[in-house]
From TrEMBL:
Protein name listed in UniProt: Ig-like domain-containing protein
Superkingdom in the source lineage: Bacteria
Organism, as annotated: Nocardia xishanensis
Signal peptide feature range: 1-33
Keywords: Signal
Amino acid sequence: MTRTQIGRRLGVAMTTLAAAGCAVVLTAPYASATVDDLSVSTGNPQAGCTYQLTAKVNHWFEVWFYDNALVIPGSPVKPVNGVATVQWKPKKSGTHTLAALQGLAYEIKVNVAEPTLTGSATCGAGPLAWMGS
């Protein structure tokens, strides 16, 4: 092997090693960022109603929220005191896979019901909501 060939191979090896090192350095903080919990503000969500999703996180990085792999409007959210929240309004009934992503993802499955009544009672206000509280 000539000196030129050795030099090229050494140059390629060093470039590859440097690129790998940069990738590790740039992704290292995100690897430690995790979502520790994800919850919905109700146990019985209905299609067409708005609920709050709450993610408990361990880092200040933004949190992305997803419903069946689609970004929930309002994402990403900056956490405050280890908590990130977003408003979620499921459009359809059925099983929804909700996820919060901050470095690593945390997923839950939620069954969304069809609305049972019309008006404000549909979203949990109760059948006598029109009377006030």
